[in-house]
Amino acid sequence: DIAAVLVIAIFYSASIKWIFILYALVLVSFLGLLYYKKKYSSPQRPPAWMTFEVISMGLLSKVFRNLEISSPKKRIAKHFKLPPPYILESWMHSMTYVRNLCAHHSRLWNRTLTLKPQLLRKPKVAWLLSNDINPNKLFAFLSCCLYLLKVINPNTRTGTHFRNLLEKYPNINLHAMGFPEHWEHEDLWK
Question: pTM (2 decimals)?
Answer without folding.
Answer: 0.76
